[in-house]
Automatic annotation (TrEMBL):
Cofactor: binding details: Binds 1 zinc ion per subunit.
Gene3D superfamilies: 3.30.2010.30, Neutral Protease Domain 2, Peptidase M1, leukotriene A4 hydrolase/aminopeptidase C-terminal domain, tricorn interacting facor f3 domain
Protein name: Leukotriene A(4) hydrolase
Active site residues of this protein: E290 (proton acceptor), Y377 (proton donor)
Gene from which this protein is expressed: LTA4H_2
Residue intervals passing through the bilayer: none
Length: 718
């Protein structure tokens, strides 16, 4: 019986086998309206109700065979949404089925849907819609059993004024009288609800392989087709390593630059950020990762989000196998070293005792998005890598990984299922000797222990050594007026990943003199590089050194790249850099409509502009504060406003420096320390200001006889 703490559905009584969606896209209203047909099957006797997950969905009708059914939308659970309880009117016995038809519309609060304005697209002429359902947002796109333990097929008719694409195979299109077109889709391979995906926009497709088309806006189609030309090679390498590709098509959708994330493995149609268009095919290992998901995650799926490592750890393991086959072993080992660093950073960020640093965390009552980090990816990879080494290397482990896919394809599994099969495979094919090895593994520490893995793997560091060496040379040259030992050839034989690692190492040093940065740029052409990963690290190094020449470049990059990995740290660092704060704020304010609302909200906070109207309406507490200020006598108000502005400056500086601290490694402490101390003082002053304002507000409330909006807080304070 499936267990999923993050779904409100009665998973122990029914399962959904197919969903058919019939939806119309309305860009003006920012809604999807229509119906979902769910084929449900009883997996127990006497099933009289079906409970579905929903979140901010407007349910309009529920019926079966044209007969309306009694249904209730339960009170909203803060993290898991509102359960929709449907009374079937009669009992289903085990194995019996019903076809539920639910009329509904999405609302502006549905977190799965991101509606972009034309200004957020490359072409700037047409609006754009895309969805992101992982981890538990599918329930805000369609009422469903939103648990990865449920695997279903789906089909859809999407009526839209612009081209629609989905995580399924397109089966036809039909022009409508009103000028819109109905796009039809079918997904025949059973998959979890979090992989339902839709995008609608001014899209053009270009074939890049026998089963692959890249989709994007016409303005970037050439660049995208060129960048991803090796897609078929990745798929074939995956097939050689595992089993034949099961999904028919493997298309890519390159989203507008305001797409705030890196990539999403939606089946038949991977979603990716345009920041992968490096112009040198150097960042396509993200594509290798998403292709690896075709087997790990999409075909063999975690039963619930507590075993997310089965998706991501295995995917990283296969991604590095593909890389190793295509580029050589030292490249996959190098990738493992970079991954290990990301794991160290995640563990540092949470703290080594934090439950979310365990490979198999408990998520009862938790939002899986909060537990998202490098841990399932890299700790999971490290365990598989360790097991491979212990059990005798590739010749033993490769056949096992293939057998794992064959055994579990089409199913949702948990860590116990995984482990039981590992044991039985090793016993069957290699006998007691391998079982004895498995018995010596400290499973408790690997699976339930927090912090770093119990065993540290040794990776081949050939490629990392060169990066460290070059960085050290620059560090040692810092007191020379004109260092002579560097040439453009230093980086010539470095891969893009090595360049990134070299720059990461430099960023851990105390800032280099400006003359050195001049020289580095002159020799290595870092300012003009197109590769976003390199450009980003170079700009961060310059900002940390208050190197003002780079500021206009930072403003240009951060206002055209909405992937949060890049734009947030850049604007935040520009804001903290000498003479940079105004440019950071102006850049953001000028391009506010370009950013995704999630990104815009975060950046506004980073830059101390939380009062900027990212959403069109004022929050009730702001309205109340405005009324309160209106009611104040002039001098009082001037004083409050003065202190308020002091406060917001302090808050922004403190929060910027705290978030910066979170991201930096200990080596950067020396650089940040003085800034941090200044901000600590600012926080103390802020506390005094806050006390003053609270006292005044309380006094004014009493004087004006205004209602208390936050009684609880006040009682606690007094
Ligand atoms: Zn992944």
């Amino acid at each position: 019986m499936p267990y999923d703490p993050t779904s409100l559905s009665n998973l122990d009584e029914v399962k959904t086998t197919h969903i058919h969606l019939d939806l119309a896209v309305d860009f003006a209203a920012k809604t999807l309206t229509g119906s979902a047909e769910l084929d449900v099957e009883a997996i127990a006797d006497n099933v009289s109700k079906v409970v579905l997950d929903t979140s901010f969905i407007d349910i309009r009708s529920v019926s079966v065979d044209g007969q309306a059914l009694k249904h209730t939308l339960e009170k909203r659970h803060e993290k898991y949404g509102s359960a929709l309880t449907i009374e079937l009117g009669h009992s289903l016995s085990k194995g019996h089925t019903a076809k539920l038809v639910i009329g509904y519309a999405t609302t502006e609060e549905c977190t799965a849907c991101q509606w972009l304005e034309p200004s957020q697209t490359v072409g700037k002429k047409h609006p754009y819609l895309f969805t992101q359902c992982q981890a538990i947002h599918a329930r805000s796109l369609v009422p469903c059993q939103d648990s990865p333990s449920i695997k279903l097929t789906y089909s859809a008719n999407i009526t839209a004024p612009l081209r629609a694409v989905m995580s399924a195979v397109a089966t036809g299109e039909e022009k409508q009288a009103n000028g819109a077109t109905t796009y039809k889709f079918q997904q025949k391979t059973r998959m979890p609800s979090y992989l339902i995906a839709l995008a609608v926009g001014n899209l053009e497709g270009r074939e890049i392989g026998p089963r692959s088309t890249v989709w994007t806006e016409p303005e970037v189609i050439e660049a995208a087709a060129w960048e991803f030309v090796d897609t078929e090679k990745f798929i074939r390498t995956g097939e050689e390593f595992l089993t034949p590709y099961d999904w028919g098509r493997y298309d890519l959708l390159v989203l507008p630059a305001s797409f705030p994330y890196g990539g999403m493995e939606n089946p038949c149609l991977t979603f990716v950020t345009p920041s992968l268009l490096a112009g040198d095919r150097s960042l396509v290992d993200v594509v290798a990762h998403e292709i690896a998901h075709s087997w790990m995650g999409n075909l063999v799926t975690t039963e619930n989000w507590e075993h997310f490592w089965l998706n991501e750890g295995f995917t990283v393991f296969v991604e590095r196998k593909i890389l190793g086959h295509m580029q050589g072993k030292e490249h996959s080992e190098f990738s493992a070293i970079i991954g290990h660093k990301a794991l160290v950073e995640s563990v540092d960020l949470y703290g080594k005792d934090h439950p979310f640093t365990a490979l198999r965390p408990c998520l009862r009552g938790e939002d899986p998005d909060d537990a998202f980090s490098s841990v399932p990816y890299e700790k999971g990879f490290n365990m598989l890598y360790y097991l491979e080494k212990q059990l005798g290397g590739e010749k033993v482990f490769d056949p096992y990984v293939r057998a794992h896919v064959q055994e579990f394809a089409g199913r949702s599994i948990n860590t116990d299922d995984w482990k039981a099969f590992l044991y039985s495979f090793m016993e069957k094919h290699h006998g007691q000797e391998k079982v004895d090895i498995l018995n010596k593994v400290d499973w408790e520490a690997w699976l339930s222990g927090t912090g770093m893995p119990p065993v540290e793997n040794k990776f081949d560091d050939t490629l990392a050594k060169e990066c460290n060496c070059l960085c050290k040379k620059w560090d040692q040259s810092r007191h020379e007026a004109k260092p002579q030992e560097f040439t453009p050839q230093d980086l010539e034989n470095f891969s893009s990943t090595q360049r990134v690692v070299f720059l990461e190492r430099v960023s851990e040093l105390a800032p280099l003199p400006h003359s050195h940065l001049d020289l580095m740029d002159e020799l290595y052409n870092l300012t003009t590089v197109r590769n976003c990963e390199i450009k980003f690290r170079w700009q961060m190094i310059c900002l940390a050194a208050d190197y003002e020449k780079i500021y206009p470049e930072v403003a240009a990059f951060a206002s055209t790249m909405g992937r949060m990995k890049f734009c947030r740290p850049l604007l935040r660092s520009l804001y903290l850099a000498k003479n940079g704060s105004e440019l950071a704020r102006n850049t953001f304010l000028k391009h506010k409509s370009f950013y995704h609302p999630i990104a815009a909200t975060m950046i506004a906070k980073d830059l101390g502009l939380s009062n900027v109207n990212v959403h069109s309406e004022m929050e009730p507490s702001h309205v109340f504060a405005a009324q309160l200020l209106d009611a104040l006598p002039e001098p009082e108000m001037a004083e409050i406003q003065r202190r308020q502005s002091d406060m917001s400056v302090s808050i922004q500086k403190a929060s910027a420096s705290l978030s910066a601290l979170n991201e930096f490694s200990a080596a950067k402490w020396a650089v940040l320390h003085p800034k941090f101390e200044a901000h600590t003082r600012a926080i103390k002053e802020l506390q005094a200001d806050l006390d003053y304002v609270f006292r005044r507000i309380r006094a004014m409330k009493t004087k004006l006889n205004l209602p208390n909006l936050d009684d609880d807080d006040e009682e606690e304070e007094e």
